[in-house]
From TrEMBL:
Coiled coil: none annotated. Residues 329-751 form the TonB-dependent receptor-like beta-barrel domain. Residues 1-19 form the signal peptide. This is Iron complex outermembrane recepter protein. It comes from Belliella pelovolcani. One of its GO terms (molecular function) is siderophore uptake transmembrane transporter activity. It is found in: Cell outer membrane.
């Protein structure tokens, strides 16, 4: 027994000795000396490795003694391989040379702001996205960025979601993917539900607040989000990412890539499925998507094809929860018909070229095509036959004007076109000029079908009770450039022309003929300057103009009024300072956004009873935004942002339906200097990160949004209350022998179980009542509650 015990002790001591071996070092750019944060350092054949941290350093522990090949790789750089012997009695200093293979950075160059662009922006890296990505839509992942308020119809971040930036909703936020427009050409909105798990195929994003450098697609009237999808990976890989959580939420994702084949070709693919029951009753989501990419990477040219698609089925939770039920039944959903669902699929095809034409010239061009089709189905109890252009039905001598009906409203559309840009950089690097543009066409068919009726009528299944088509051509050309006038002083200019032709033909869903056409020609100039000091500070200021055409609904509902809706105009001033130091960084900026003819809901009705938007002559948004991060110690860091603003309409007229008299009419009430709807005066977040040991991070994420009004009257009875929420995040990564990386993430949302509603809507009207006026004002508020304490947990395995 003593011999066995002695042998066991010797064996344990040898294990301890083995565990003591480690290697450490730094990885930098061989020319600039800049640390290459995120570079991969791997001991080939062992499954052991590390990622270069924010200080440019890495460490690999618990290495058995022996000889190894150390491989260091980073996008845009040549892979380095060194033979080493462990134990190693030195700290490695590894330098990578820039790759001779042309990279994909220029694909988004024409739409991006750089360090010398005088605008307000924030870059979001892939690793930052991955920390939060457990299957929720992109608006929820951006919740902690400056001036953002996110919300979800189903209350749990899966399904229909949206966001506002500086109070501007999704229809006023320009979104591009690889420089290609994503906003719907007619509504100007972005329906993230049609792109489930898209964040898993995103390499980086840039959010520009204000007009920014927007060029392609819908006009920026509040912000822009520029997305670049996954870029080339030099090493072959496989990845399985699964998450689960509250409300029976499940996300299953599989990714694979070939790495660089023959130093020229690379292919990647992703397949995802997300399901959730939702927080709101019956608000389920069944979402499927894929992303496939392949490219040729030459010394000076890249040709790449992206194909991605999303298919969604969601149970409708659009109506919200009535105020009367909010305290007793927060998950209420008025719909009970089992197939009250939204069904849509959208396929995207992108052919992208980018390359160096000469030492001074680069070029980028892309062709794109998007095919979307789908419907939402509704059970309509006791609906009027006249709403479907049907005569009353005679049964047994009785004339039936109403009955239960099931209908489907369809959208079948094609969106296609091309974008391009040429970039010139002078030999002395003082001039950086981009000439670009694009031309796109949208062709959409809107129609409605009756698929069931309570009593048989002279109607065939799939008969269309309305049908109309719309064609929209959108073209633009721009010239932008930066010139370094003196050392550190950069002058910026951007001139854009945008032309639009929009025509309709057919019958709308309210049975009116909406045939007609409109055209617009917009000139959007931008000017500014940036001054960079030798101490790491950067000052900037800019003036920019954006013009925006009305959305589809503004045109189709316009016959009610004496004039057609007018285009909106925005004049935007931005000024600020950016500071980057070794332990801290911060941005501070002020902005003023002056709107002319902003379109808002007023309560006014058209000739068939639909509520329409009207132009208000003068309105503005003004505020100050602060964001930054501070490294308190090697284990603790603090980051956050704060936006304080005023958002006002000079004069606004509300129209209230009056049912108190024998004859219906609308009463007009005029307000002055009121808050713009859904524009909180204070939005902030704070994130505390604690890393008690290597590869483990514990984070507290706090979000505050002040109260906001649901219309433009500043009526205290039509308001969303302020809220403060706190989330808890745990990330732990390891590199066991059998896989390249194993990562566990846990998100506990709303840990203090705060009951809050970031979105809603309201309407008011008069009914007969007692008193001198003989009427009473009724206000109905509807809310979209978010879930209380809930969680999502995920496990990602990379091979």
């Amino acid at each position: 027994m003593k011999k066995y015990g002695l042998s066991l002790a010797i064996l344990l001591m040898s294990f301890v000795a083995v565990a003591q071996n480690s290697i450490s070092g730094s990885v930098k750019d061989s020319q600039t000396g800049e640390p290459l944060v995120g570079a991969n350092v791997v001991l080939e054949g062992t499954g052991r490795g590390a990622t270069v941290d924010l200080s440019g350093k890495f460490e690999i522990r618990n290495i058995p003694s022996g000889s190894y090949v150390l491989r260091v790789s980073f996008l845009g750089y040549e892979t380095l391989k060194n033979s080493i012997k462990v134990p190693l009695n030195e700290v490695l200093e590894l330098n990578l040379d820039q790759s001779s293979i042309f990279t994909e950075e220029f694909i988004v160059y024409g739409t991006r702001a750089t360090d010398v662009t005088p605008t307000t922006f924030q870059n979001i890296k892939k690793e930052d996205i991955a920390k939060l990505n457990l299957g929720q839509d992109i608006p929820m992942l951006l919740n902690y960025t400056p001036s953002v308020v996110s919300f979800s119809d189903a209350g749990a971040g899966v399904g229909y979601t949206g966001l506002r930036i500086r109070g501007s909703d999704q229809t006023r936020i320009n979104v591009t993917v690889n420089g290609i427009p994503l906003n719907d050409a007619e509504s100007h909105g972005v329906f993230w539900v049609n792109m489930p798990d898209f964040a898993s195929s995103v390499d980086n994003m840039q959010i520009q607040r204000g007009v920014g450098t927007s060029t392609n697609g819908a006009a920026t009237f509040g912000a822009s989000i520029n997305i670049q999808t996954d870029t080339r990976q030099d090493e072959a890989y496989g990845e399985v990412d699964n998450s689960f959580g509250s409300f029976n939420t499940r996300r299953h994702t599989v990714k694979a890539g070939t790495g660089l084949i023959n130093d020229r070709w690379a292919f990647d693919a992703r397949l995802s499925q997300i399901t959730s029951d939702g927080y709101i009753d019956r608000a389920f989501s069944d979402l499927r998507s894929y992303f496939v990419s392949g490219g040729y990477y030459g010394d000076k040219h890249v040709v790449k094809v992206n194909i991605f698609s999303g298919a969604e089925q969601t149970y409708q939770a659009w109506e919200g929860v009535p105020e009367a039920l909010l305290a007793t039944n927060r998950t209420f959903n008025r719909y009970t018909y089992d197939n009250q669902t939204d069904n849509y699929q959208q396929d995207h095809y992108q052919l992208i070229y980018t390359g160096a034409l000469s030492p001074n010239w680069k070029a980028n061009a892309a062709l794109h095509y998007t095919y979307g089709r789908g419907y939402y189905e509704q059970f309509r109890p006791n609906d009027r036959l006249e709403n479907y252009n049907l005569p009353n039905l005679l049964i047994g001598g009785e004339s039936i004007a109403r009955m239960d009906i099931i209908r489907r409203r369809w959208l079948d559309n094609d969106f296609y076109g091309g974008v391009f840009s040429f970039n010139y950089i002078s030999d002395d690097a003082k001039w950086d000029v981009v000439l670009g543009g694009g031309a796109n066409r949208y062709d959409g068919d809107h129609f409605g079908e009756l698929i069931w009726m309570q009593f048989a009528n002279d109607v065939n299944i799939r008969d269309r009770y309305y049908d109309n088509v719309a064609v929209k051509d959108d073209r633009n050309v721009y010239l932008k450039g930066t010139y370094e006038a003196i050392e550190g002083l950069f002058l910026f200019g951007d001139l854009q022309y945008r032309g639009i032709d929009y025509r309709f033909d057919g019958i709308n869903n309210d049975l009116r003929d909406i045939s007609g056409q409109v055209s617009y020609n917009f000139f959007n100039p931008k000017f500014g300057l940036t001054y960079q000091t030798s101490t790491g500070k950067s000052w900037y200021a800019s003036y920019a103009v954006a013009n925006r055409e009305p959305v589809r609904r503004d045109f189709t509902d316009s016959p009610i009024v004496d004039r057609a809706p007018q285009a909106e105009n925005l004049q935007n001033i931005e000024a600020g300072i950016k500071v980057n130091k070794s332990r801290y960084a911060y941005n501070a900026n002020i902005y003023y956004m002056n709107y002319n003819n902003q379109l808002v809901l007023t309560g006014q009705l058209n000739d068939v009873g639909a509520y329409v938007r009207d132009n208000v002559a003068d309105s503005y948004r003004a505020g100050i935004e602060l964001d930054g991060a501070y490294q308190l110690s090697s284990k603790i860091s603090l980051g956050g942002n704060l936006a304080i603003s005023r958002n006002k309409i000079a004069e606004f007229t509300e129209y209230l339906d009056d049912y108190s008299a024998a004859v219906f009419f609308q009463e007009e009430i005029t307000y002055t200097n009121t808050d713009i709807a859904f524009s909180p005066n204070v939005v902030g977040s704070a994130i505390l990160d604690y890393r008690p040991f290597k590869n483990f991070e514990l984070s507290l994420l706090n979000k505050y949004v002040s109260s906001q009004y649901m219309d433009n009257t500043m009526n205290e009875n039509r308001k969303l209350d302020a809220f403060w929420t706190t989330d808890l995040r745990l990330n732990y990564a390891m590199r066991p022998r059998f896989v390249n990386n194993l990562e566990f993430t846990l998100m506990v949302y709303n840990i203090f179980n705060k009951l809050y509603e970031p979105n809603g809507y309201t309407f008011s009207y008069f009914l007969p009542g007692e008193g001198e006026t003989g009427r009473q004002l009724i206000t109905e508020n509807f809310y979209y509650p978010m879930a209380g304490t809930n969680f999502l947990a995920g496990l990602k395995v990379r091979f």
